[in-house]
Every structure is written in structure tokens, then in C-alpha cells.
Amino acid sequence: MTSPLATTPASQERWSPRLWGTLLVLCAAMFLDALDVSMVGVALPSIGSELHLTTSTLQWIVSGYILGYGGLLLLGGRAADLLGRRRVFLIALGVFALASLLGGLVDSGPLLIASRFIKGLSAAFTAPAGLSIITTTFAEGPVRNRALSIYTTCAATGFSMGLVLSGLLTEASWRLTMLLPAPIAVLALLVGIKLIPHSEREKNHRGYDIPGAITGTASMLLLVFTVVQAAEAGWASARTLLSFAAVAVLLAVFVTIERRSAGPLIRLGVLRSGSQIRAQLGAMAFFGSYVGFQFLVTLYMQSLLGWSALHTALAFLPAGALVALSSTKVGNIVDRFGTPRVIAVGFTFMVIGYALFLRINLAPVYASVILPTMLLIGAACALVFPSLNIQATNGVHDDEQGMVSGLLNTSVQVGGALFLAVVTAVVTANAGEGSSPQAVLDSFRPGLVVVTAIALVGLLITLTGLRTRRPQTSVLIAKSVQEESVREEADPVLAERVAVRD
Q1: Last residue of a domain, one of 260, 279, 297
Q2: What domain range is 54 assigned to?
Q3: CA dihedral defined by 385, 58, 47, 288, rounded to 10 degrees?
């Protein structure tokens, strides 16, 4: 059940300067999260050279962040609901700033990896807390859709800008790529202390689900760790198989605990909503396919075409620019057509863009292949990412916005780690004995086919939500205090505003 729109502070079309300031602080945190993910990749060779790190150690500079971020999102989302969204957001943002400063000053590989893990951990709390602050501050419908489109656009812009900035900063020193987020985070923290509204903790919650937090966090940490290490250890190795078995056991225990807990970390009833499930699976397919694509494209441009890091970053710029320019338009499109249709169109663009990139060869084909692909993917990101956030958070009670936000971000991160590992494994399996440029290019194509297939699966999942439904006037049937179910209306926009509670 959703709160009445009239009680939401941002229920009017005109936003106050304070409300704009709050949104900009939240956008800054999301921008930094995305910026940090993309900036470190280009700096890895310089880091390895200065700190004398092996390739396997360098991998953990990236994987450490993913491990902390993806493993603790569920806990971060629920903590925002129980402890207060403002408090959790500001504390985690302060930790992020300190970890950024530490990462730029250390002279040790293990310390750098530790700083990356801490940054990922703090992002696991700022991301769901920030998203839930938006969804509880801005009224559900056109106003919230507009806010979410701006918010998610900042994430996509940060990811794109990180590629360009890393190419520029690494020319001077890799440490600048680590230090850059620190002053921005401090400024956002100071402004946030003044502007972000105080939020109440969840009322009438029945204690803290400590066993669920332990098993849920442990299962996510082990899942991300296993996926990250599978490419090195081997997908069929005893270590990988035993790790996946342990993940399955932990998840089974977690589900059992959640079903019996009076105050669960995740209320499993929220997953009875088809719209919610499609949003979570769509998020996995969307980010997983894009991360795999970016990985292959970066290798193609730098290893085969001989482009510099900055040249490669500029090739991605049209996609980021298109996302940034569309920030205020997507909300209106969603209001008119509903999230399922918008997501379906976006996934269609992604499939076409990825398939078009299969035409690459050893000679640069920027105008006919690379540029059209980047524009298609930019349009897809502009449509899909905001719409997924809107679909996942619509119709959810304020007390559970943090939980759903954490769940969505977990789907994004796990999808990215899982499908990147799959794409890497496919490319490795198809690498021949020869190391000629043509042989390397031939090994990339199966990976691009997998990327295209992942996006196609996301499209097919989304299309299942476009079935025509008979209009129904009843939107809520109360069965008990803890068990409620709802019926969706024919209009796709109104249907997303229906809450599903058990």
C-alpha cells in the first residue's frame, strides 16, 4: 500500500530550491558511485607499474569494490529503513570520502584493495538510502518519475564521465583518479547535512533480523566472490562448484529465516509481484550486458585498434552525452506510455546496437558501426535504467523503499559480476593458439553474441508484462494484517502504483 500522495512533501509540480538541493546531493552520491567504478579501469596499468602488483592482484582493485558493493546492498537497504535514511546516507557518504582519500595516499597493494572494499561497502549503504529518500520525498507518479529520471541519468553520466576523466587524470598520476571523489563527497556531505530532510525510522518493526542479515550478506558476498574468481579458478573446478553449493545452502537458510522472521530483512511477499520480478531480472540483464559489452569494446579499441585510453573514452562519449541530454524527458515518456513499454523499446535498442557491433573488423569503422552503436546504447540506457527504478519502487510502502532499493541495486551488481564473468569465459574458451589480431578479434565475436543474447532475454522478460488485462475496479483485497494481495488495472501506469504486500 502506498502513502497518500497528499502527504508527500514533493506533491506539487513546482519544486522549492531546498528540494532541488536535496535531489542534487543524492545525485552527487550516485554520480560518485558510478564515476568510481569506471575511472579505476583505465588506471590499472599505471597502478600495477608503480606498486609492482601482479595481474591477479590488480584484479582485486576492481573486484574488491564489487565485493563490498554487491555483497552488502541488501543489508544497506534494510538499514536505511530501520535506522533512518538520512543518518545511513550521510554516515556512509562520509566513509566513502575517507576511503577515497586513503586510496589516493597508500603505497601498498593490500591497503589499496582494502580502501576499495570500504568504498564499495559505503556505496552499498548510500545507493539504497539515496534512492529510498527520493521515493519517500517525491510523490509517486509524474513528480517521482521526473526525479528518478534525473537521478538515474546522473549515474549513467558519472559512468561515462569516469571513462573520460580517467584518461585525462591518469596521464598525470593514477592517484588523482582515487582522490577526485573525496572533495566532491565532502562537499555533498556538508550540503546534505543542511538540506536532506530528517526521516523517521520504520514504525512498529519487530526487532532486527540479525540471522537474516548474517546469512543474506554472507550469501551475497560468497556469490560475488565465486563469480569473480570463477574465470581464474575455472567454472568446473572443485573450488567453484563447492562455492556455488555453499551459496545455495546459505540462500536456502536465508529464505527459511525470512519466512519465519517477525521482522525480515526482505519481505518475500514483495516478490509475488510480476512487475517487481521483471524489474529485478531486467536490471540484471541490462547492466550485465552493458558491462560485458564495455569490457570487450575497450579491449578491441585499445588492443586491436591501438587507440589510447582517452581516445577510447571519447568513443563512448556520445552514449553518455545522449543520456545526459535526455534526463528531464524520460519521466514524461514513462508517464505517457508506462514502464513496460519504455523498457521494451530500450532493450530493443540495446539488442540492435550490440548486434550491429558484430560487424567490426581490424580497420576502424567508426561512422558506420561504432557511432551508431553508441547512440543506440545511449538511447537504451536513457530509457531502461530510469524506468527500471520507477517500476521497482512504485506501489511500495514507504517503510520498505530502502529494502526494495537495496534489492534492485543488488540485482544490478550481481548481474554485472555474473555476466561479465560469463562473457570473459566465452572469450577465453574461443581464444585459439595463435595471437594474431584476427585470431583475437575472432575470439571477441562469441562474447558479443552472448552480450546480445543477454539483452534479448531482458527484452523477452519485459514483453511478458505487456499482456492486455481486463479492467478491474478492485485494487486491494485485505486477507489479514500480514497478508494482502492486489489486482492490477488495465492501464500500465496505474498498474505500477498498486502495492503488493503479504
Answers
A1: 260
A2: 5-209+261-495
A3: -10
